[in-house]
Each structure stands twice: as C-alpha cells, then as structure tokens.
Amino acid sequence: MDIGAILTGEAADASVGESIYRLAAKLFPICRSLTGPGVRETLGLLQKIVPLELRRVPTGTPILDWTAPKEWTIRDAWVKNAAGERVIDFRASNLHVMGYSVPVHRTMPLAELKRHVFSLPDHPNLIPYRTGYYAATWGFCVSQEVLDALPEGDYEVMIDSSLDDGELVYGEYLHKGRSEDEFLLTTHCCHPSMANDNCSGLALLTHLAAEISRMETRLSYRFLWLPGTIGAIAWLAANDAHAGRIRHGLVVSGVGDPGGPTYKRTRRGDAPIDRAMVHLLRHAAGKPEVIEFSPYGYDERQFNTPGYKLDVGLIQRSRFGSYPQYHTSADNLDFIAPESLADSYRLIVDAIGLIETNSAYLNTLPKGEPQLGKRGLYDKIGGDPDTYGSRMALLWLLNLSDGEHTLLDIAERSGLPYATVARTARMLEAEGLLRALAAAG
Amino acid sequence: MDIGAILTGEAADASVGESIYRLAAKLFPICRSLTGPGVRETLGLLQKIVPLELRRVPTGTPILDWTAPKEWTIRDAWVKNAAGERVIDFRASNLHVMGYSVPVHRTMPLAELKRHVFSLPDHPNLIPYRTGYYAATWGFCVSQEVLDALPEGDYEVMIDSSLDDGELVYGEYLHKGRSEDEFLLTTHCCHPSMANDNCSGLALLTHLAAEISRMETRLSYRFLWLPGTIGAIAWLAANDAHAGRIRHGLVVSGVGDPGGPTYKRTRRGDAPIDRAMVHLLRHAAGKPEVIEFSPYGYDERQFNTPGYKLDVGLIQRSRFGSYPQYHTSADNLDFIAPESLADSYRLIVDAIGLIETNSAYLNTLPKGEPQLGKRGLYDKIGGDPDTYGSRMALLWLLNLSDGEHTLLDIAERSGLPYATVARTARMLEAEGLLRALAAAG
Amino acid sequence: MDIGAILTGEAADASVGESIYRLAAKLFPICRSLTGPGVRETLGLLQKIVPLELRRVPTGTPILDWTAPKEWTIRDAWVKNAAGERVIDFRASNLHVMGYSVPVHRTMPLAELKRHVFSLPDHPNLIPYRTGYYAATWGFCVSQEVLDALPEGDYEVMIDSSLDDGELVYGEYLHKGRSEDEFLLTTHCCHPSMANDNCSGLALLTHLAAEISRMETRLSYRFLWLPGTIGAIAWLAANDAHAGRIRHGLVVSGVGDPGGPTYKRTRRGDAPIDRAMVHLLRHAAGKPEVIEFSPYGYDERQFNTPGYKLDVGLIQRSRFGSYPQYHTSADNLDFIAPESLADSYRLIVDAIGLIETNSAYLNTLPKGEPQLGKRGLYDKIGGDPDTYGSRMALLWLLNLSDGEHTLLDIAERSGLPYATVARTARMLEAEGLLRALAAAG
What we know:
homotrimer; alpha/beta; eight-stranded mixed sheet
C-alpha cells in the first residue's frame, strides 16, 4: 500500500480501535516496571504483531549520566492482620506494591506500617500508583478507605521481591523507507495495570508499526517501546552517533481516554511535526488543545535535551496529570474506549501522511488563471467529498504554487484541511496544471 | 495641480459624489456583457470625460490560457403567454436575459421553460443576474413572484441574440508621471443594469482618471475598464513584458453602497498598497473592514497569479456577495448614493496621495530636541485643523526621522492620521528641521 | 557587597522605604525651579548621602540647540486686598508663584489680575503648578475657591524675583564598574513642593546611588539629578563624545504614590532594559502596566532622540498626568508612602540585578537529562524559598542552556521569576552542571 492511501482514508480501518482495545486489555493485567519479567512478557506479546527486537542492557552498564539499574522481580506481597487475613494483597492489584520495593518480612505496629503506606485522601476509594526507583525502600499503596478501616495492632508485612543484576530491556522496530531520515515513535512500557497510561500507547504503537510495515514510505520509521526515562537514556547512549537521523518524532502516551486530543510542542516549537499536529488539531473533533513545550513530561524530555535537540512532540488525549484517574486504580479498562483509540490512531496516521506528502508545487500555467471550464475540472471537483473545499483548494493551489509554499502552507493560509488540499493537488498534478517539487523534509 | 494638493484636501471637491452619481445613472440602462455593443456604448460615454483608448482583441485570439470569445449581441427577448402577452420582457429589464444566451424561438410547455428560468425563492420580488459565458445555452431570469404567477400552458419563447466573430473591447488610459513605475486602477465593465456592481466603479474610475490627468505625479497611473476575468487576461497577454512596472494597484468595484468600506489585501499581504489602505481604513468613517487575500473575487485574482505577483488589492464598500441586493435587480440607483461615492473617491485619492508622498526624512538637529519655542512652531501648529495631532506629529517626526522611518511608519507608530503627519512634515521641512529623502517606492 | 546579593534579597533592607520617605520629606519644602538657590540647596542635602558633584553651566552657554537660561531667584510674592491682607501668599505655598515669573509690583483691578491667575475649576480646592520658563511674564496659581472669594476691587500685586546671569546646576555621580559600559539613572530636580513629582525620585535615586557605591559591579552606574529638559540637554552637550557608553537607562520620576508601577519603553522598544522591566512587571504586585514609547514625557525624550538613540526607559508608579493630584498642591507628603517607595526601589534594584547577571550558560552534560537524584539536587532545591519554582527552573536551565538562551530568555519562556532562575543557575553552576558564558551586554 502506498502512503498516499492514508490521504484517501483507505488506511482508516474502522475496526482498528477495537483491535487496539483488545490488545490493551491483554496487556492490562501484567505487572510491569522499569525492568523485570513483566516488561519481557509485554514485549513478547507485542512481537506476535510486529517483529520488534529486544534490546538488552546489562545491569551496571553506564548509559550517558546514568547506570542501567538492577532488575526488579516481584513475586508476591501482602499485609496480614492479627487474624492472618491479607488486608492488602498484591494478587488483588499490582498497584498495591510500590515499584522497586526492596524485600521485607516483619511484624510491626500500625503506626510504623503507615509510614510505608500511600493513599489518596481526596479520592478515598482509589489506589495510587507509586514507585521508588532509585531509593532502597519499600511501600504499599492502598485506598484511603482500606487504610482507615485498619484497626490498631500488629501487622505482618511481606514483600517477596528481589533486586538483582540482570538487564534493562526495551523493544525496537525499524521500518526502512526510501530515505534514511527517520520519524520516531515511542511509548513507555514501564507502568503496571493502568489502561490509559500506558496500555493504550503500547497497543496503539504496535498496531501502527504493523500497518507501517506493510507500506512504501519516503521516511524510515523507528518505533521504541521503552521503560520511561532510563529506556530513552539507554537508547540515546546506544545510538548517539546517528540520533540526528531523527527528523520528526512523537511520544505516544495516554491515547485511550475520552478527553483531548492534546499535543505538546517540541522544544523548538515550530518544527514540521509541530506544524503538522497543530494543523490537524485545528480541524480535529473533541476538545483539541496544543500546549507549549516544557521540560516536564514523558520521554520527549530526553529527546529534546540540548545535546540532541530532536524534534519530538507528545501526543495524548487528556493532558497527563490533569484527570483524577491519572496514576490510580481508576485508570482501568473502563476509562479507555475503542473510539478514542481509533481517533488517536487516525490522528497519528494523518500526521504521518502529512509529513510524508507535504511538498511544494509549481503551477505550470502561472500567468493568469487557467481556463478551468474547458478542462472539465469543475465536474471532477464535483465528485470530491468536500466540493466547496476542493474548489477553494483548487484556486488556492493555483495561486500559491510558486515553489515557495508547501501543501501545508496552503492549507494553513486557506483554512482548508490538509487532506482536501493534498487530494486536490494530486488531481491538478494529474491534469498537468501542477508539477511537484521534492518533499519538504 | 501638484499631487501634494491631495494632502491638503484641495482635491476633495464636495460635488464629486454628485458628478460620479450622475455618470453612473447615465450608464445604468445600458445592457453590457463581456462583449458587444453595450460595452462600446459605455466606453464611448466615458471617452467624453477622459481620453481613454479602446483596445480591440478579435474573436479567437489566443490570450494566455484563454481565447477571445465570440461577440454577443442581444436585440430583444421575451416569453409570451397563450394570449400573446409578454410575461417576461427584456425591454423591462435587461437582467431578464441570461448573459450570452444563444438565440431561441420556440413554443414550449411551462415545465420545459422552467428548466431555463432562474429566480430567487428567498427574495421573491427580485430578478437575479446570471450569465452563461462559456456554455452554449440560453436562459431567463425572473422574480419568483412572476414565475409563480405563470399558469400551466404553452409559452412562446424568443431570444433575438447572436454570437459572432467580433471583438473583445476594453478601455485603457495611461497618465505618465516622472517615473515609469505604475499605479494600476481597474474596474469591470461587463455587468448590465446594476448600479453598485458596477456602474459605480466605472463612473468613479473615470472621474478619477480625469482628475489625475490634470496632475503632476511621481508615479504613472494606468486605468483599465475591463470585461471581468477575460479582459484582465487580455490585458496581461498584451502587456506581459512590462506588467512588472505595476508597483501598486487597486481593483475598484461596488463603491456606491452605504456599507464598508472594505479592503481586500494583495496576495503578498503587506505590500505598500496594503499598508496604505489598512492605515486609511483605521481612520475611516463607516464600518471599515480589512479582509485577507483569497483567490476568489474580482480581477485582483488575475494580477495576483504566481506568474505576475502584482500588488493589486480590491476596494469596495460592502463585501461582494454579502448583501441581498448583490447581483439582483435591487442593485439599482436607489442603492447607491453620492455620499458613498464621494467617500470611496476620497479614500482612493488619499491612498494615491499616501503612496505618492510617503518617504523618510532626516532630522537636521538630531541631538536632543530642538527648541521649538524660539522658532514659533507652537503658533504655526496652532493654525492646523488638528492642533493636538499636529503637535504630537511634530514630536514623533523629530524623534523618528532618522532615515529609517517613512511618514507612514510614523503615522502607524504614533496612531496619527497620515495626512496630519505629512502636513506637519512639510511644515518642519520648510523650517529646515527635516530634510526629505527619496520617496519610498 | 557583591551585586549578586541583590538576587538573594540581602540588599532589600526593609527600612529603605522609611529612609527614602524621610529624605523626600526633607526636600519637600524647598522651592526648586530650573535654576536658582532651591536647586543648590537640594543638591547640597543629597551630597550628605552620596558624593555627587555639582556641574555648573553659566547662563548663555550654547548647549545643543538651546542656551543655558538666566538664573531665577524668588524671594517673596503676594497679592494684597484693599485691607492690605495677603490673600495669596508665597510663604504659604511656593506653588502660588508661577515658575520663572518676572518681578512685578503694581496695583490693579481684579479683572486684570485674573489674566495672570491659574486655577483648576474641576478641583476647586487645589493649587495648580505652572511655569513660564521661556516667556517674560508673571503669574499666580491659586485654588478656585480662593479665586472665587476675591471681591471686585483693586489688588496690590508683588513678586520679588530676579532673572540674572548665573548658572544652570545639576548633580552627577559615577560609580565605576569593571566595564566602561554604563547604566544611566536620572531624575528631575526642578519641581517645587510636590512630593511624588519629584521629591520621591530625588530621594530614591540618592539612596540607590549610595547603595550602589558600596558594591562591586560589572557595569558603571551614572546618576544624574537634572533640571527637566534643559538639564538633560546640558549633560548631553557636555558628554556628546561618550554618551554612547550608556547601554541601559531609567528615568526615575513619581515613584512614591500608591498606583502602578508603570514602565514606559524606550524608543527601540525591545532593548535589554525593556525586556528586564517588562519581565519584572509581569511578576510585580500592584497594577503593573507597560506603556509604549512616545516622544512626550520626561527626559527619556532627550536620550531617545535620533542623534543618540540611548536605551533609556521611564519608571514611575501612576502614569504621569493620569491622577488628579498630578501637578497640584495635593501632591503632598500624604500622597506618597514608604511602602510604595520601597517597592519602587526594589523594582529598580531588581532591574539592575537582572542586567548585571543576565548571561547564557552551557549545560555540561547536554545529552539526556543528568541523574539529579545521585547528586542530592532535589534536597538542595528543597531549601529554596520557591521549591516548585526552583525545581522547574532546574529543568528549564538544563534544557535551554545551549549557549543560545540567557537567564532572562529562560525566565520568560518558563514563566518563572528571574530571581528563581538566577538562584538555581548559581546552584547548578556550583554543582558543575552549568558553565557560565559572558554576560549579555
């Protein structure tokens, strides 16, 4: 399939939202963290859909200013009351154990236990999600309701975990296009049972990689499934010499909830990916929002550091941290929906289509307007799904195709959707009225 | 008369609105189209006021991507009912016949006739204006009320027209200034009995050409009275080699109604004519509006094609297509008024004055402020019609006259009207406090 | 004391507002004008605090387009009624005599007297402030109430003044920094008993000069206490050859009232001092307002003339001319307050601190984010008065320190206060994570 199919909507399989949802649901129960069996199990499931490769970085490997951490394995964890009942139980929710908790097995009074327990007083029935990656400590996360119901007394506390030399693992898949210039798509794979953040991103990116793998593309497409921060650091350390090939990028995260869509700009702020996303969001359904770059967020932080300055933005639905379900047990499979996933997917696909096809054209009859009637162009436009738009697109394309305006420039100036402008350009090119110049970058 | 007179208001003869109105009224009854006797009759009337030349392009002449069309002559047209009464009659309104209708003389039932009749259901008492330039067809335009009153039955239909080899005719007048750089002013001459669109433009441009012809100017002024689209194409085809002399331009159209004024920017958007018009509209009475360029409109479309990129904007009162009288029989002599015509005239004259005189100055005493009191400048300013404005203009002119700011720059930055700034600059120049540099372009 | 102390607030002695107020109160009763004993007495009082030098320009000296005026001495003035009572009395308020009044001693009817009397009908209980510098005339200023109460009849009018060859005097103090580039601070010393305009400015600038004199600075600081307009002209005439050393400047005027603060931009509009003040006002308390440059105002007019183009802005509280107390007897010591003076002082000190310290940095670990935890940086930030701000500042500094962004650029982009960004930069520099480049200008 040619990438141009994207522009005509052929690539928008209506069932894609369902497929992504089903994969996200399959990933949901797995207990992921920065390292450990959960990440391997997750990536193994994804490999059934796209032939991603596992990259392994042994514990202790220096990676930029960091070091690959010990591998964390969690087998079980609980708190038992005096009656021996599990009042907090890892088997009920893997959020109950703070990520990277060191092992513990002791009996202690409630007051001491509470110093290791996290809850959300403002959302008393939700379990929070917490980690303690680089501090040798342990903790439990519980709902305020459960915590309040614990009577005074002694509790037996057990975390059956280990922190051993092992490996940091991430997934990578490269689709080669005609150019070595790359479009980077990444998502984080280090969160346990939270559906939006980030089973949605894992599943969407996997389906997207599978679809791109079947296409002829101009750019090369690099997909990364990374443990947050440390995974991006590891990839950059391993790919320092050719990281500059990345010309456009998107971090994909939290793409299944009903809010947004929200796009966060790159550090540069007006990169081609920024212009593409801002344009698409201007015409998007929902409550589209464009937010400025800040060095707080997901792995776009790493790609946008001054030593790399890679033009990588962030696409999500609701802005992270802005919704009550964020980083809690309420971020479950009810919080995401096939429609939202399909909409996010379509948006990213449209961005890819735009970046792939955006180029400038030359009007071959630039002096005065060509006589459109004698060429039957009005009839041809009559068949377009957006007749008014394509008629205006035709006039704008003829007027601005002096080699100095790309299709996106024309879409922005005319206020028309890129897809309408691009479709009409193809029609005019077929008529010999436009001649394409090389794609924009 | 020196062009500078414009700035002092000497050129603003209060009766100019009446003169333009009278000429528009004289032109109103003539049945114009792209070609034919009505255009010749119209241009002949204008020649009594300004010595414009008729340019003649024989039918079939290739002009850019187009061909000069056959000449259309309409002598009479009617629809008769069974009683032989003219129920639609070209003699009552030349709008009744669709422009470029081919001849027909047949009797047909009402249903068949209706396929050739245009009306306005939303404005049931108005006759629409329609043309069918490049399709060999015929049609009648009637009010919905008349159409609804036609009983079933047979009707005798007659259009006594001819489409023959002939000529495309347009009018041209060049006023030579000191420079070969040109200011282009055009208007369309192809509409039948509609007062605002465009008897108003025809009459205004003619009076303006007559006035300019009596002036010493820096720029040369080219006036064109053109059949829409095809006339501009014909002129460009004939003048391709030196079209680039056009440095500024205005299409003048629909300048007699009570709305606006409305200025549509050039393709470039910030050309000198754009800056001039935007400035003048900022200080204009009425409901001034500046709209962005789009490749939909009048002949500015042709001049702004990428093969020419001439800085030609559009001046009108109400935006075309935005008022119910537009392209109907309600666009009659009651819809235009001498006051509106005079206001439009004044605006265009002011734009010419601005473009003619806009230049940068040097403050001859640039270090600290000059002592104004000892030169009696406060008294001189006291005699200006705008004392406060001219006092501020004086301070701004002294402050910004470093050779890098034109009078328009200073007017824009200070928020003062250009005329006040220009008058004050002349006064300061006479005092030796400013020295003029060459005009801006 | 190092200039850096400014950033930590060490320089912000809480009592500074009281000290400035006390000095303003001491200056308030003195009858100042462009020239004369009042100016010398005023500058003499200031010399007790800072070793400013008196510059003397003899009457008649040509200074740019002007001439040093005669010196005006006023000893007494009154209007007596038929009973010999002083109904207007200079001893009650020095505002009663128009500045630069020529001597007069005559008896005249009320009608004639009134042609020399100024009052404020809209503010009937206030005495206006008026001058007649360059016209050989005399006048009295009284409240409308007093004026209305004068019965018809003859009045004895006496002004015991003299206009003799003498000198124009102004004060100057230069604090030398490491660079010859200068920061200019000026205020006008020519107004009689008005507290805000401009005892406040005189007192503030004097205390500021004293504080700066005890500091190590990068820039040199030039302080001028000038009679309005003519003083700036005199200084420029005397310093024409090296006026270009002035890189930044502020005219300080009306800095004690409860309004504002208001900053008026330089002619250039985006000079470093403009950016600094706009930034500080964005984070300022009160009703901060930034207004555009205009060639109407205080001595910034002279410094911004095209022959000098010095980047000198204006700082005041309420915008001059915008409050009813302006240039009246209501501008008394009740109208100014230590809190407002302290706030103005702090704002100017912050601007100086910003201009002194603003520079770009290089992130020494630019590839990926450094691992902050292992360096204990989170704890160090925890001790900052603005923990959230300094944490975000840390991330922004690491992200934007590529040598192309100054601290102010980073403060503006992040929305954080400059002081937070600068403090955090010092901490990161101490950690070796940032390396400073040369200061910005």
